[in-house]
Amino acid sequence: MTQISLGGCLCGVVTYEVAGAFEAFFLCHCSRCRKGTGSAHAANLISTSAKLKWCAGEGSVTSYKVAGTRHERSFCTECGSAVPGVHMNGALLIVPAGSLDTEIAMRPTAHICMSSRAAWDEGLENIPKLDGMPG
Questions:
Q1: Full pLDDT tens readout for the chain, 135 residues
Q2: According to DSSP H, which parts of 3-134 are helical?
Q3: Which CATH architecture is the domain 4-117 placed in?
Q4: Which of 20, 102, 113, 131 keeps 20 to 30 A from 44, CA to CA?
Q5: Cα distances (angstroms) measured from residue 2 to each of 21, 51, 54, 83, 120
């Protein structure tokens, strides 16, 4: 049975379906991923065989590629949310894990590009954890 994953952007304009399995789940700490997400790392699922189907909003998806690099990210033009993209001349499907509505059983494969992680991204497991907003 083929694994089906559903997802979309924050504003709901873009929705998608992925048919197939993910081979890797990387948490990338490079400076480009940090800038692209505004966070400590990007969380991306990778597949060389799964197929992406846009259910709605394909016309609201655009990609940005950093010149001279392989770094590329796709996002909704309405809300800016990261959405899947087919990169490296169609060889690689990259799905931002946070864009999925479907739960996945896969755990992250590895933290990557740790040599360029942010200095404040250390010991985060030791800071207080709240179930909701502070205050």
A1: 678 999 999 999 999 999 999 999 999 999 999 999 999 999 999 999 999 999 999 999 999 999 999 899 999 999 999 999 998 888 899 999 999 999 998 999 999 999 999 999 988 899 999 999 998
A2: 31-37
A3: Beta Complex (2.170)
A4: 131
A5: 8, 11, 17, 21, 40
Please state the domain extents for the chain.
4-117
The C-alpha atoms of residue 22 and residue 82 are separated, in whole angstroms, by: 18
26 CB burial (10 A radius; 0-12, 13-18, 19+): buried
Q: Retrieve residue 106's tokens.
A: 């896969």
User: CA 120, CA 105: separation in Å to the nearest integer?
Assistant: 29
